[in-house]
Design goal:
The chain has 321 residues and is α/β, with parallel strands linked by helices. The chain is built from 9 helices and 11 strands.
């Protein structure tokens, strides 16, 4: 493991985690951290979505102001962790991410001395962290799970979610790197400052047009969706946040900028009940897909809901669990 100042500046440290090689060669993940000066035993670990990486410094600011040390994990083949020989964002089993998630949790708890860990997952990261929290439900790794527009099902018609999934599953057996779709650039363009949005991010790591959707990757996602649909048994408290509305990418700009144009929020609400024993659902009026990037006042409402919930369900220390 190596560490250095992160691209976000001197308040952030980036640690490169060396992982087991895969069929493409060397693999790394990157754990970014920002500590509060007063010290705290509570930490939050953020996990991004597909075609994404951690760039939202204001997200770290919010958690720091709430008294948490902030960590973000750029998963293998994403953002800071993408190596020249790798297929961007590609994986064939979501369980492979357990390696970097386990190591990040170990560092946060054992090396950095935190005894309370909140995990915050966005979109695909919400699916990944939900499945991981379920697998780690007996060892106390996660004290609370917060999901920002988690990806719980395909935002496609019924036949594509059923017959289409079966076709992809078989195709991935023989041609896992076969391209089966694209995301389109509408959501990315609505975010980036050069195309009318309010945010700046690295377009090599988060291109407006996205990365190709490959059969092996989509099969891994659909298997994760199926596992969730059968029901998980997450033992820690869970907060699920989603917009009050979804919209088409062809909607007027004012609708695109106040709705989730990536996922069907009805799927999020319906499948939230299958996460575990204590689940809270918060709907954010005017929220976009990444609620933390929503325009005001939706963004402030999202953070208000998160920290109100955290105040009720996140322990101050391990002794108060």
């Amino acid at each position: 493991m190596t560490s250095s100042e992160d691209i976000l500046g001197p308040d952030y440290i980036a640690r490169t985690l060396t992982l087991q090689p895969d069929s493409e060669g060397d693999v790394v993940a990157t754990l970014v951290s920002r500590k509060i000066p007063t010290g705290t035993g509570r930490a939050v670990l953020y996990v991004h979505g597909f075609v994404d990486y951690f760039f939202q410094a204001h997200l770290a600011d919010e958690w720091a102001n709430a008294g948490y040390d902030f960590y973000a994990l750029d998963l293998r083949k994403y953002g800071r962790s993408l190596l020249p020989h790798q297929t961007p964002n590609y994986i064939e089993s979501l369980q492979s991410y357990d390696e970097e998630l386990d190591e990040a949790a170990r560092i946060i708890r054992d090396e950095d001395g935190h005894d309370v860990l909140v995990v915050l997952g966005h979109s695909t990261g919400g699916l990944i962290t939900s499945l991981w929290a379920h697998r780690r439900r007996f060892d106390g790794t996660v004290d609370a799970l917060i999901l920002n527009s988690p990806w719980f099902d395909l935002n496609k018609p019924f036949l594509q979610r059923t017959v289409g999934t079966a076709v992809v599953d078989r195709l991935a057996t023989y041609q896992p790197r076969r391209q089966v779709g694209v995301l389109g650039e509408h959501y990315g363009r609505s975010l980036h400052s050069t195309t009318g949005g309010a945010w700046d991010f690295n377009l090599s790591w988060k291109p407006l047009e996205g990365f190709p959707v490959l059969a092996g990757w989509l099969r891994a996602i659909r298997r994760g969706h199926a596992e969730l649909a059968r029901g998980l048994d997450i033992r820690c408290p869970v907060l699920v946040c989603a917009s009050t509305a979804s919209a088409s990418v062809t909607a007027p700009p004012e609708t695109i900028n106040s709705s989730d144009i990536v996922l069907n929020v009805r799927h999020i609400a319906e499948r939230s009940t299958r996460l575990g024993r204590l689940v809270t659902l918060a709907r954010i009026d005017g929220g976009i897909h990444d609620l933390a990037l929503s325009a005001e006042p939706a963004r402030s409402r999202f953070f208000e809901e998160v920290f109100r919930w955290a105040g009720a369900y996140v322990p101050e220390s391990a002794a108060k669990r």
